[in-house]
Write a structure and sequence with these properties.
Chain A: Residues 608-880 form the GCVT N-terminal domain. Chain A: One of its GO terms (biological process) is tetrahydrofolate metabolic process. The structure holds four protein chains of four kinds. Chain A is built from 23 helices and 50 strands. By secondary structure, chain A is α+β, with helices and mostly antiparallel strands. In chain A, strands 8, 9, 12, 13, 14, 15 and 27 form a seven-stranded mixed sheet that branches. A seven-stranded mixed sheet of chain A has the order 17-23-18-19-20-21-22. Chain A has a six-stranded mixed sheet with strand order 41-42-43-40-34-44, with helices on both faces. In chain A, helix 3 (182-193) runs parallel beside helix 5 (223-236), helix 11 packs across helix 12 (535-542) and helix 11 crosses helix 13. Chain B folds into two domains: 23-107 and 182-251 and 344-416, 3-Layer(bba) Sandwich (FAD/NAD(P)-binding domain), CATH 3.50.50.60; 117-176 and 254-342, 2-Layer Sandwich (D-Amino Acid Oxidase, Chain A, domain 2), CATH 3.30.9. The chains are: A alpha+beta, B alpha/beta, C alpha+beta, D mainly beta.
């Protein structure tokens, strides 16, 4: 039974389910509706006319349309963290408990104090702000801008994290169809019957498009009957997929389309484990745009009064929702189609006050209808509307010939004709073509594989829509390689379509073109007067068409008016560029799963879970989580832990997971020759069983990456990269192999994840290793000298690789085992290391020891330094060609005054250093002229018991011993430092060779 | 008519019937002292500085479409001078100082809004790099502050601090940075330059160069006929290679698409300009209420002024990683501009090997914020035939000499800058 | 002298929880099974040795190695195409371990052991395709991706080898995924998120399917 | 964009990485600084059809030569790099 509250609901008819009543709240007031309603239709059924306030003047606004083109009826939907500003009431599906609030008003919708803006309307014309608010300069940020920002902006975002989930998915089809109206359904039938994989997207929750409101007879059936039969057949076809609540919003290269599925927006919140919305990337061989057309307003004084509604929308509310926007309706039309609203209204027992028809001749049938229903047909135009918050009261009509008339009505239906939805067909910067017969822009070409059909293609008759849709469906299927029998097309009559173009009725009072942005006809005239004649200038100067409705109702009228005032034709004036998305899409949907902690994937080392058991502190390095240090009970800060770890290594033995290094198998007879071309130093001469440090340049001569590479066999090298460059170096080497040096017989395979690799360092390294490694293996200095590399067997028979290389400067080995044994190896090292109090150390201690040792790393390999800058010029071979050799010789890269790596320590031993400080000659006032370098890496050195650092300093190596000034205004620090040898620890390297 | 609240009120009384064109709609003359190709912000600013600073008023600006139809109208409106390398630092600060007096200079409100630009950092290494950069700025007299986590939380409590993949640790803040209304900058320079006698000629596409026997450029051939010129300046970022090719030049430049996005208008949510340090995302909120945001270039050479979907997703992922509160805010429009990506990520302002032809190009992402500075130094070069001191390092031969200005340190791969 | 255990630990040992996951009110639409402890060898032909490699492979495995994106199986081994002139050898029990194969292919190919570099996950069930559509950009429609089809592709910006094995006894398609070991735990969580709405049955096995 | 990898078939853009114009050829050993400079720094930057190096890193790891229109993004041909796979090249 019809709830008492629904004063404007018809007793019968419509596609609502009267057995499923729903309660909802609008601005705190509880109202009732039915399943099948939109928020807009339910508001109408409850007699609500005032729904929102406009952007600039805060004028009262009602519901203009019944679709995603709605400029006025925008609300804040839902509450709290789920609040969605600017939600179109016309597309929001009603659910029980829905909460909506009007926006952009204060304190209330009925009494909006911001409406005082209307008093200043004479000043707030298009572009007014460009001409004022300039004095005094400081006032902009302080006063004007905050006021403007507060006044603008429509709805309020939640301001807290979105609690809902989103995901993204891929779909493939032969034929993609946008729209489920007569053209779309006919296309799906033809393509599906032909055997094609079909996806049909419909943004509405009900299928049928305009048929749902306009009805009609197809194959002798009612539209409703035909829709259900068609859907029934489509579901029997194996590869036809119908996606309702899904808007196709964009077309991208290579036949990739973007669509947004509102999976659970029709519920208060998504069920557990389900997403709110899903972003689809649909790959289609062919696509058919059957997105219909949008009825366009006529611009006249007072055309934004609540109760003024598009004619097609008004009959949609009556026919589909059994809701009556008004009891006594006037129609203002310039075409025959508008009259359907009269028929619908009469059919629902509503009164017609009058029809104002701008066409010179109205059909006999319509005259007969008027006579029968006893309403006048006035030849002329609506020149003004009396009314306000509570809707339309009276309409004044300028009759052809000059006389005036007045009509009492509480609702005005307007039809200015129809604009095909040309968005999708124009997103590759295509420009639609003007068709005089329907006075509208029609697609002129489209992205590859796409065609338009039906109203979207300018075919407004039902019969034509079916024919075009069916033909397009069959053709698309055939082009996609499916030649099955498409059967016979559905048949219907074509209504006559006659239209007399009418865009703007001159007259007193504000006449709106862009309702939401309050752009009036006079704004467009002003823009033209000021030289903003190009439609793009017009758009940017007046903000025409830039609101949330993307100008769906305003663009064409706007440029028609511009054409008129600038004395050009509409096609000459042209359209702006159409931009995706077709409807606004939640940012969360584009992100999908990739937000918060799942923003990017995470890489874990083989010892990760063991380290976590030790309460290690982890640091993000690229995608990796690495143990940064291992705090112990009683240690007051990271520095204390790191210092302990360093001392433990220098004094005994420690180990560190270095599995994050990039590892590459370089195989083949030409492996050595290949490495000679990618490294600045030579590897073909490296003996089997030996490792060597290597440095790579970019082709522009700048240092790219470094690492040790070992020769495990004549035709097998094991190359390591830095953690950061693992991926890029692999790509670079493949480029060298496949593109630059294809004649070399070399193969590359990333084995980064195959090996768990640990650095074991400290004077007691051998003692520990002997516990782990099979006793038969000779680890003596003779049996396994510095820079040796070979496979060994561990106790228990596991095969491993040992590399005698040192980053810490201590006697050290790197050991690698197959990754799934990494966890066991760590535990065994701890077990075997007990007697030597073996100490796991993290990346901080690693960093400290490399700085003490003067090894360069990320902060020095910063993409602007040369080998010589890093003190590695001497290893650059002069006897061979290699990547970067020639460009490295350019004058500015070999200039004597370059900034080069040097060590530094504060003259005040107690002083802490910070990276990022700049180096200024002592006693000089800092300026760009004497800014001679900067500090790259610093650490507290437990070994030297003071802070030390590395810096890039002009002529640094010639200035060892010089006292310079470290200038750090950001942190308010200034102090003297002494430039010194970057190798602070064991300069002759005795310890690592010992 | 001079703009002021009073003139506006006066105009209102007369129903705004008396407003003149914002700039004269000029037709080409036979000859100009200087012809500038490109009616974007840089070209129009150059013309205005030539007329106002260097007294050269017989100037034409040629625009193939409507003024501001290139990157001047397709950017994310950010202004800042937080660069770290010699050459960039001084130049962008010169530009920032010109932004600060632009409205008074032009008598046009370009809505310069110094709301602050903050670059967030997420690791110690990033902090150190920002410290180096911030100190460079301070040493050059530019405002810069290094904020710690607490300060960032205070300023932007809405960021994702609790469950972020790459937690924010702090940020480098330039309070004088901010935004400006991009179209208004174009119209403002057009308005002011036109007032000083500069001819702004729209729908006039350059199709070739006129050269004399010695190869000197003596003018341009256009869709509106030959136009003679004492000097010709190119300010056509996005099309630099195509125009230069007409003079037989190859440039160290590639054209790439940079997308930008705007959301539906919402009430004030984001107070400043932010860049995410662990992904490709930067954002500010326009005075109209839209979130204006962007990220990385699409990654391949392109002259198609439209974006692809993977980058669109990548940018929104960055946004949702940094501030998941924007999940329900809707993306309203997506567009793409064509960037002049140079081989070191920094611009080129120099004479060319062709006598009489001057180049202003290679702006990468820096084009909009550089607009006034670019106009001044390019005007200086055109007027004096020697580089302005703040543009002395933007020479064309720096690549040959190895004197690159590579802020990102990625080398000669434009799509990585 | 300490006694060592060399327990092999799967990268998923921490994250994989046997049992039901996600939606409970529905019949589990997906089963996710990790296959543990296998041998996986990358075989890449040397320059100009493609044909020789093919011959050797046929002799060695009794079937031709795939030279297009396919996976072929014999009783004791599966050969998975992984790129031009290269394939992966998946087996158990050491018969096709690195040392043995290196011997066999020494003249024609370069081999790298990947046994520990990958995690093998098998995805099947009525909703397997719906779930994989969220992770993979490959068209898995039966006509486009029949049994035996393989793809070297990416999930979550990470390289994976994906191939369709023999259908389950109940006729459901089975999709096998080789993912990088150090990414495995992270990808596993992504897969669980994708599976949750359909309800998933989680398990692991020592048997190659 | 969709790229038809000659080895894998049609794949989405995300699997590929772009390097740039494939026309410049790396000068042989002993080339002059000018020649190498030209190779490293100067570009035709054509608006229209151009041949480029792309890497199928998210797939079979083959380097490809792709002919693509920079105005429309339409791809007219995709070829493997000379040294992709085990192709025998030169000596």
């Amino acid at each position: 039974m019809v709830s008492r509250a629904q004063t404007h609901r018809l007793e019968s008819g419509g596609l609502i389910d009267r057995s499923a009543p729903l309660n909802f709240r609008f601005d705190g007031k509880t109202l009732a509706g039915f399943e099948g309603d939109t928020l807009a239709s339910a508001l109408i059924a409850n007699g609500v006319k005032l729904v929102g306030r406009s952007f600039k003047y805060h004028r009262p606004r009602g519901i203009l349309t019944a679709g995603s083109e709605e400029p006025n009826a925008l609300v804040e939907l839902r509450t709290g963290a789920r609040r969605e500003p600017n939600t179109k009431a016309t597309t929001a599906e009603l659910y029980d408990g829905l909460e909506a609030a009007s926006q952009n008003r204060w304190p209330s919708l009925r009494h909006d104090l911001m409406a005082v803006n209307q008093l200043f309307a004479p000043i707030f014309v298009a572009g007014f702000y460009y001409k004022t608010f300039m004095w005094p300069a400081k006032f902009w940020e302080a006063i004007y801008e905050p006021a403007i920002r507060r006044a603008a902006g429509l709805g309020r975002a939640a301001g807290v994290a979105d609690p809902d989930h989103y995901d993204k998915a891929w779909a493939y089809c032969d034929v993609l169809i946008a729209g489920s109206g007569p053209a779309g359904l006919a296309a799906a039938l033809a393509a599906g019957r032909s055997g094609a994989r079909v996806i049909l997207c419909e943004e509405d929750f009900a299928l049928g498009g305009r048929l749902l409101a306009d009805g009609g007879t197809i194959d002798g059936m009612t539209a409703a009957e035909w829709i259900s039969r068609t859907l029934a057949e489509l579901t029997t076809l194996p590869d036809v997929r119908i996606m309702s609540r899904t808007t196709l919003f964009g077309v991208y290269d290579g036949g990739t389309y973007g669509a947004i599925e509102r999976v659970n927006d029709h519920l208060p919140s998504p069920p557990e484990h389900q997403v709110r919305q899903r972003l689809w990337r649909i790959v289609a061989k062919r696509s058919i745009v059957a997105a219909g057309a949008i009825e366009r307003p006529i611009v006249f004084a007072g055309n934004d009064t609540p109760g003024v509604m598009m004619a097609s929308a008004m009959r949609t509310y009556v026919e589909r929702y059994a809701a009556t926007p008004a009891k006594r309706i006037a129609l203002f039309t310039n075409n025959a189609d508008g009259w359907r609203t009269v028929e619908a209204a009469l059919g629902a027992g509503l009164q017609i006050a009058a029809v104002v028809d701008a066409r010179p001749d109205v059909s006999a049938a319509h005259h007969a209808l008027a006579a029968k229903a006893e309403f006048p047909v006035l030849n002329g135009s609506v020149a003004g509307v009396e009314g306000g918050k509570d809707g339309v009261r009276k309409i004044s009509v300028a009759l052809t010939g000059g006389a005036r008339a007045e009509v009492e009505a509480d609702g005005l239906a307007v039809s200015g004709g129809w604009n095909p939805a040309v968005g999708l067909t124009s997103y590759h910067r295509g420009r639609p073509k003007w068709h005089d017969d329907i006075s509208a822009f029609v697609p002129d070409g489209a992205p590859p594989g796409m065609v338009a059909a039906g109203a979207a293609n300018g075919a407004f008759g039902l019969g034509a829509c079916l024919r075009q849709g069916f033909a397009a469906g069959a053709a698309a299927a055939l082009n996609a390689g499916h030649s099955g029998n498409a059967g016979t097309p559905p048949v219907a009559d074509d209504e006559a379509f006659s239209l007399t173009p009418l865009w703007h009725v001159a007259g007193k009072g504000k006449a709106f073109v862009d309702y939401q942005h309050d752009v009036t006809a006079s704004d467009i005239e002003l823009a033209q007067r000021e030289g903003f004649e190009s439609v793009e200038h017009l758009k940017r100067y007046t903000t025409l068409g830039m609101a949330t409705d993307q100008g769906k109702t305003s663009n064409v009228a706007g440029l028609a008016i511009m054409a008129a005032v600038s004395g050009k034709s509409i096609p000459e004036t042209g359209t702006t560029i159409y931009r995706p998305p077709y409807v606004p899409v939640a940012i969360g949907a584009f992100a999908g799963h990739h937000r918060d902690e799942t923003f990017h994937a995470t890489r874990l080392t083989p010892s990760h879970h063991w380290a976590a058991e030790q309460d290690a502190v982890f640091v993000d390095t690229g995608l990796w989580k690495r143990a940064q240090w291992y705090p112990r009970a009683g240690e007051k800060d990271w520095l204390e832990s790191v210092t302990r770890e360093v001392k433990a290594v220098r004094g005994g033995v420690g180990f560190c997971d270095v599995s994050t290094l990039g590892k590459i198998d370089v195989h083949g007879p030409d492996a050595g020759a290949f490495l000679d071309r990618v490294y600045i130093n030579t590897f073909s001469s490296l003996a089997v069983g030996k490792a060597r440090y290597g440095l790579m340049l970019r082709e522009d001569g700048i240092v790219y990456d470094d690492g040790t590479t070992s020769r495990l066999a004549e035709d097998h090298y094991f190359l390591t990269t830095t953690t950061a460059k693992a991926g890029p170096v692999m790509q670079h080497l493949e480029f060298c192999r496949q593109v630059l040096f294809p004649e070399l017989d070399v193969q590359l395979t990333s084995v980064s994840d195959q090996w768990a690799q640990f650095s074991i360092a400290g004077p007691k390294t051998r003692d520990l290793l002997r516990e782990i490694v099979d006793p038969a293996e000779d680890l003596s200095n003779e049996g396994f000298p510095f820079m040796g590399a070979r496979e060994v067997t561990l106790r228990g028979g596991i095969r491993a690789r040992l590399f005698r290389i040192s980053f810490s400067g201590e006697m050290a080995f790197e050991i690698s085992v197959p990754a799934r044994y990494g966890d066991a190896l760590v535990r065994n090292l701890m077990l075997a290391g007990k007697p030597f109090s073996v100490t796991p150390y993290g990346t901080e201690a690693l960093g400290v020891m490399r700085i003490e040792k003067g090894h360069v790393a990320g902060p020095e390999l910063n993409g602007t330094t040369t080998a010589a800058d890093l003190g590695l010029g001497k290893i650059m071979s002069t006897k061979k060609d290699f990547i970067g050799r020639v460009m490295a010789g350019r004058e500015a890269l070999v200039a004597p005054d370059r900034q080069v790596v040097v060590g530094m320590k504060p003259t005040d031993r107690a002083r802490r250093l910070r990276a990022g400080a700049h180096i200024i000659p002592k006693g000089e006032i800092p300026g760009s002229a004497n800014d001679q370098g900067y500090v790259t890496s610093v650490c507290f050195s437990p070994t030297l018991d003071q802070w030390i650092g590395l810096a890039l300093v002009e002529r640094g190596r010639e200035r060892i011993g010089e006292i310079v000034h470290a200038h750090d205004p950001l942190r308010g620090e200034d102090y003297d430092v002494e430039l010194c040898n970057p190798v602070f620890y064991d300069p002759d390297g005795g310890r690592q060779r010992g | 008519m001079r703009h002021s609240i009073f003139s506006l009120a006066r105009a209102a009384l007369s129903g705004h019937k008396n407003w003149q064109r914002t700039w004269r709609d000029a037709s080409p003359k036979d000859h100009y002292d200087v012809v500038i190709i490109g009616g974007g912000g840089h070209g129009l600013a150059t013309a205005w500085f030539l007329a106002s600073e260097y007294g050269i008023r017989n100037v034409a600006v040629l625009e193939k479409g409507w003024i501001g139809s290139g990157n001047a109208g397709r950017n994310t409106t950010i202004i800042r001078s937080n660069y770290g390398l010699p050459g960039n630092t001084g130049f962008y600060e010169l530009s920032m100082k010109l932004w600060e007096r632009m409205e008074q200079d032009l008598n046009y409100n370009t809505m310069v809004s110094q709301r602050g630009v903050i670059n967030l950092y997420h690791s110690d290494a990033q902090r150190d790099a920002y410290a180096r950069r911030g100190n460079t700025m301070r040493i050059n007299g530019i405002d810069a502050e290094l904020l710690d986590l607490a300060a960032v939380k205070k300023m932007m409590p809405f960021l994702n601090f609790d469950n972020a993949r790459f937690p924010v640790q702090g940020g480098l803040l330039q309070r004088r940075g901010g935004t400006a209304r991009h179209d208004a900058v174009v119209w403002g320079y057009a308005h002011a330059a036109s007032t000083l006698g500069v001819d702004i000629i729209q729908n006039c596409e350059v199709t070739g160069f006129s050269r004399d026997a010695n190869g000197k450029v003596t003018g341009v051939e256009t869709t509106r006929g030959k136009i003679g010129a004492g000097k010709v300046g190119m300010a056509v970022a996005g099309s630099s290679s195509r125009v230069a090719a007409m003079a037989g030049l190859r440039l160290p430049i590639e054209s790439h698409v940079l997308q930008a996005f705007v959301s539906e208008a919402i009430k004030p949510l984001i107070p400043n300009v932010m860049t995410f340090g662990a992904g490709h995302f930067y954002v500010s909120q326009s005075d109209k209420g839209g979130l204006v945001f962007g990220g990385d270039i699409d990654g391949y050479n392109s002259y198609a002024q439209r974006g692809n979907m993977p980058v669109m997703e990548d940018v929104c992922e960055g946004g949702m990683a940094l501030m998941p509160m924007i999940g329900r805010v809707r993306l309203l429009r997506q567009w793409g501009g064509i960037m002049d990506m140079s081989m070191d990520g920094s611009p080129i302002i120099d004479k060319t090997p062709v006598d009489g032809l001057y180049l202003n190009a290679g702006w990468c992402y820096g084009g909009f914020k550089a607009t006034p500075g670019s106009g001044l130094v390019f005007a200086h070069l055109l007027a004096r035939d020697e580089p302005h001191k703040e543009a002395a390092r933007f020479r064309l031969d720096r690549f040959r000499r190895g004197a690159m200005i590579d802020e990102k340190g990625v080398g000669a791969q434009p799509n990585l800058h | 002298m300490a006694e060592f255990s060399w327990a092999s630990r799967s990268p998923l040992e921490h994250a994989l929880v046997v049992g039901a996951y996600g939606a409970r009110d529905v019949e589990p639409g997906i089963s996710l099974t990790e296959i543990r402890n296998f041998e996986l060898i990358q075989v890449m032909a040397r320059r100009g040795k493609g044909a020789e490699l093919a011959r050797t492979a046929k002799a060695r495995f009794g079937m031709a190695a795939p030279n297009v994106p396919k996976a072929v199986s014999a009783s004791d081994v599966t050969l998975i195409w992984s790129g031009p002139d290269q394939f992966l050898v998946l087996s158990k029990g050491g018969k096709h371990a690195i040392d043995i194969l290196s011997e066999a292919f020494s003249q024609s190919a370069s081999l790298s052991d990947q046994s520990h570099a990958r995690v093998l996950i098998s995805v099947s069930g009525a909703k397997a395709r719906a779930m994989l559509a969220k992770l993979s950009s490959i068209d898995l429609h039966p006509a486009a991706f029949p049994t035996g089809t393989a793809a070297a592709t990416s999930i979550d910006h990470t390289s994976v080898n994906l191939w369709r094995g023999y259908d389950r006894p109940d006729g459901q398609a089975v999709f096998n995924l080789l993912v990088f070991a150090t990414f495995a735990e992270s990808l596993w969580h992504t897969m669980l998120d994708a599976a949750a709405e359909h309800g998933a049955e989680i398990g692991y096995s020592e048997e190659l399917g | 964009m969709r790229i038809v990898c000659p080895f894998c078939g049609e794949r989405e853009l995300g699997e590929f990485t772009y390097l740039g114009d494939a026309k410049p050829v790396r000068p042989a050993a002993g080339a002059s600084e000018d020649d190498v400079f030209d190779y490293v720094y100067l570009r035709d930057n054509i608006a229209g059809e151009t041949t480029e190096h792309w890497y199928h890193g998210g797939g079979c790891r083959a380097w490809l030569k792709i002919t693509r229109n920079t105005l429309t993004h339409e791809i007219s041909s995709v070829e493997p790099a000379a040294g992709a796979g085990a192709a025998k090249v030169g000596a």
